[in-house]
Each structure stands twice: as C-alpha cells, then as structure tokens.
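Annotated sample (chain length 129).
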Amino acid sequence: MDSHGEPSIADLLRQLVEDGNHLVRTEIRLAKAEVRDNLASAKNGAAFIGIGAVLLLGAVFTLLGAGVGFLTPFVGAGWAAVIVGVATLVIGGILIASGARSLSVTSVVPDKTVTSVKRDAQTITGNNR
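Output written by the structure step:
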C-alpha cells in the first residue's frame, strides 16, 4: 500500500497472478467435470449397444427355434424361420440404432469449458464483441 492507502503496483500484480491462477484452476475443474459427464453419457450409449447386441444374438437362437416350431404347422418350416428371423432382427436393430444415436450425440470435448475459456481470453485481451 502506498501513503494514500491505495494498493501498490506490486500488490495489484500479485492479485492479478492469484486471480489468474484461481481462474485456471477453476476452468480445469470445470473441464474435468464436463468430460466426466460426457464420458458417462457415452458409456450409457455403449451399454445400450452391448445389451442390444446380446439380445439380438440370444433372440436369433431362441426365437428362431421356438418361433419356427410354433409357426411351422401354419406356414411351413421355411416361412416360419423367415418370419421369426426378420422380427428378431428388427428389434435388435432398433436397440443398436438407439445406442448408436446416443453415442453420436455425445462429445467428449468440454464445450462449456471451451466457451468459458474463449470468453475469458476475450475479456483479458479486451476483444469483447
């Protein structure tokens, strides 16, 4: 502090460095949290794909056998296998498409943090548009 009770240039620079360090630490915490959230969402999409694939495989073996056995007296063995197989593939395909759609929407890039850092940089450089 100088004789007028105002902070000195050294005090102001020290405060600027402290504020800058605090800002960087805060942005890093935000980026970590955002990446963690995005990865959790991607993990859910991958789980849907995995579950869909397992169900699809299990359905192919189980339903084809059971469905063919059930439908054979009505449409014959060949048509019974086709009907059951197509229905099973449609259900499994829908599950896989749902999981893939979830993954395509998910980004690991911390968009909020990137925007915040850009805004901070513009504020520091004085390029506020």
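Annotation: The radius of gyration is 30 Å.
Annotation: The longest helix spans residues 9-75.
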